[in-house]
Write a structure and sequence with these properties.
The protein is mostly helical. It contains nine helices and two strands; from the N terminus they run H-H-E-E-H-H-H-H-H-H-H.
């Protein structure tokens, strides 16, 4: 059985090599920065048809791609921990509630999906999928699917499968297609700027 290909350096590893800071402090700094980006992306709504959209799913998959599987997932977990502690980091907070009560509500499955998406896209990025448009598109599409599967499944337990699809999936497809297209352009372009897109 052939050995698995070794992980390739992530975009964050190229832009901020570990020797410049202790690995733990570097990881903490990146995770905190990522959690701030997730909070901002949850709060900013962009007018779109048929529903306004946030850029949070795009930020989730981009963080996974840039940070890799472990740090990407850890960053999302830090963000969720902030929300569980009662900080108003989620979309619609504090108006729609705070803490664990909010997380157990209709959006709880999508929040769990953020962790899966960051890990999955990070793992694919460690195999070089973020460096070319076709594979970047595939990686981010897989990441969005990882958000929607638990999201819609959890929502279905609250309002039924038909309504979950009608309110928790279909209205967001066009916006998410646009996000995938944007990410497909951003990731290979970022690698091209580093001059290392085709290198290990």
């Amino acid at each position: 059985m052939p050995a698995a290909s070794p992980a390739r350096p992530t975009l964050a590893a190229v832009l901020w090599p570990q020797p410049s800071l202790s690995p733990v402090l570097r990881a903490v700094a990146l995770a905190v920065l990522g959690s701030v980006l997730l909070t901002v992306s949850a709060k900013v709504q962009i007018p779109f048809y048929p529903v306004p959209m946030t850029m949070q799913p795009l930020v989730v998959v981009l963080l996974g791609a840039a940070y890799g599987s472990r740090l990407g997932a850890a960053t999302v977990l830090l963000y969720l921990a902030q929300g569980a502690a009662g900080l108003p980091v989620f979309a619609g907070t504090p108006e729609k509630g705070l803490g664990l009560a909010y997380m157990a509500g209709p959006t709880g499955g999508y929040l769990a999906g953020f962790v899966l998406a960051a890990f999955l896209v990070g793992r694919l990025a460690e195999r070089g999928w973020d460096r070319a448009p076709v594979t970047a598109f595939a990686a981010m599409s897989a990441g969005l699917a990882a958000i929607y599967l638990p999201g819609v499944a959890w929502l279905a337990t609250l309002i039924g499968a038909d309504k979950a699809l009608a309110f928790g999936l279909y209205p967001f497809l066009w916006g998410d297609l646009l996000k995938v297209a944007l990410g497909t352009a951003l990731l290979p372009a970022a690698w091209a700027l580093t001059g290392r897109r085709g290198t290990a």
